[in-house]
Design brief:
alpha/beta, Rossmann fold, 3 domains, 6-stranded mixed β-sheet, 23 helices
Length: 537
């Protein structure tokens, strides 16, 4: 059995999906992208065979007993089904208390129906049927299993007068009305799912709104397995929920189009479960835009906040190393399933050869024109703009501050000439080794490979070059060509320009890029054609 789903897209065409029993579809998007409107859009054509568990549902019980008659319950269900198709149901629940009462009714009724069926089989002396019926667990027993596996230490059971009660660790029973918010919501979701009829389309709207992901993730996964006779659609903000269910498809919602007060179309893409990428990369995709820029570093490094300002139209994702950046970009560009994504990468220059830079650019990975990200923050042009802005507040002479910063930086670098020269030569030496490694033909032919590299000579060339830059006072070359973050030079520059430390100076640079188009244009120029290439797709 299956449900046909049709989603109007903002581009004009429709996305047609089929969801079978036993399958789950996650709808992932930020606030304001139209997730709840889409959930209602998917619910309405199937409302006679659907159950919508709303994000704004009531989170308390008015009673823990069966306080509805069968007739009242049927009437309420009919009213709720009709009410959920109205436009205001997206943001308002006129049946909040009644939904909770129906959940309690269904739990108790399922328990009673099971008990009566077993008793009737025993009374009819059909012991085999009684044994068969007893093997089918009642919803409350399943709920207790789910609660335990979802790290909720309570047990639910029915006692006299058809009251549903709870207890912890075998303690004194108490009313389920006294459960915590998370416990009540877990119970309500489980009760709704476990008591629906076979063949129901179950829509769960933002379950993380009331439950921590350490609870909702295992709970949903277990409910999917218990109700493989139903189909599930789950809307969420939580990127990790789809990853916890790798067999599910994920519909990414980025925005929506309004026609009056209602949503008429959605900007959406579908990520299939068979997409051949690792979970870390899938998390980046689910949490990002259609354009992704992978960079070296971590979430807390200098790279990400700077690049996010320089390229605001693209999602910036930090990866640990250049290898990780190359893997991420290549994985996306090589995947036919991700044709709607556009991936780019930025890596440090690290004195790469021109051929290596061109090779990487052909794969969508751009090497900085300077040594590393610090070379951008402390570029003399950026320093000059910062000094001018700072002088407007302090009244200092920016030219004097810049001269002092340059002299202090040069003096700070001088004791480290040998080490910086070795570090700068390191990349070139490694590339030279790799160029002499035997290829397939040489290995097949068994030809000898002799590698002789003048390490000392390479370091000497770098040392002479750096020393010449120091003698000439060429701070731009020193900053753009050498890893001066490994010296005290950057701290000296920050303090001479009037800042307490590097962190304060670097924050001022980011603020400059927010306010000053001249500064932003200059920094973008350090990335070659990257901005134009991003805009072109």
């Amino acid at each position: 059995m299956l449900f046909n789903l049709t989603i109007p897209r903002s581009t004009g065409e429709s996305l047609n999906l089929v969801i079978h029993f036993g399958e789950a579809l996650f709808i992932l998007g930020a606030n304001g992208t139209g997730k709840s409107s889409l959930m209602q859009h998917l619910y309405n054509p199937h409302h006679a065979n659907a159950r919508w568990i709303s994000a704004h549902r009531q989170t308390w019980f008015s009673s823990n007993a069966m306080d509805l008659s069968p007739y009242q319950k049927r009437q309420l269900e009919s009213s709720i089904q009709g009410g959920d198709t109205s436009l205001e149901a997206r943001w308002k629940d006129n049946y909040a208390q009644q939904r909770a009462s129906i959940a309690i009714y269904d739990l108790i009724d399922a328990e009673n129906v099971r008990a009566r069926s077993i008793a009737d089989a025993v009374d009819g002396n059909d012991i085999e049927l009684a044994k068969t019926l007893s093997k089918k667990d009642a919803p409350i027993k399943i709920i207790n299993e789910l609660l335990r596996l979802s790290n909720i230490p309570i047990e639910i059971f029915v006692r006299e007068s058809d009251q549903v009660v709870a207890r912890k660790h075998g303690g004194v029973p108490y009313s389920i009305a006294e459960l915590s918010d998370g416990e009540r919501n877990a119970l309500l979701i489980a009760a709704d799912v476990l008591t629906v009829k076979q063949g129901t389309l179950i829509l769960v709207d933002e379950p993380e709104r009331h439950l921590h992901r350490s609870i909702i993730s295992p709970l949903l996964t277990l409910l999917f397995s218990k109700r493989d006779d139903c189909a599930f659609i789950v809307s969420t903000h939580d990127v990790m929920l789809p990853l916890d269910n790798p067999s599910a498809r994920t519909l990414l919602i980025r925005s929506c189009t309004y026609n009056g007060s209602s949503v008429s179309a959605w900007d959406t893409d579908l990520v299939s479960p068979g997409t051949e990428i690792d979970d870390d990369l899938k998390r980046d995709i689910l949490g990002g835009r259609r354009k992704l820029l992978f960079i070296e570093g971590t979430e807390k490094s200098l790279d990400k906040p700077l690049y996010s300002l320089v390229f605001p139209s693209i999602s910036v994702v930090a990866k640990s190393s250049c290898r990780d950046v190359e893997h991420a970009v290549s994985s996306i560009r090589d995947s036919d399933d991700l044709h709607w994504l556009h991936a780019f990468g930025i890596i440090d220059n690290d004195r790469r050869t021109e051929s290596d830079i061109n090779r990487l650019k052909g794969k969508g990975i751009y090497a900085l024109s300077v040594f590393s990200v610090e070379s951008i923050y402390y570029h003399p042009n950026v320093q000059a703009l910062i000094a001018q802005r700072h002088a407007a507040v302090t009244g200092d002479n920016p030219s004097i501050s810049l001269d002092n910063a340059k002299n202090a930086a040069i003096e700070a670098v001088k004791p480290h000439v040998q080490r910086l020269s070795e570090r700068a030569a390191e990349k070139a030496l490694r590339e030279e080794v790799f160029r002499h490694l035997p290829g397939r033909e040489e290995i097949t032919a068994g030809l000898p490979v002799n590698i002789s590299i003048d390490v000392g000579g390479a370091v000497k060339v770098e040392r002479e070059r750096l020393q010449n830059a120091l003698d000439m006072g060429n701070l731009e070359e020193i900053i753009s060509q050498y890893p001066i973050r490994e010296t005290p030079a950057l701290d000296k520059i920050a303090k001479e320009l009037g800042f307490q430390n590097r962190e304060q100076y670097e924050g001022a640079v980011r603020k400059l890029l927010m306010d000053d188009d001249e500064a932003l244009t200059f920094v973008r120029s350090l990335f070659g054609t990257l901005e134009a290439d991003i805009s072109a797709v």
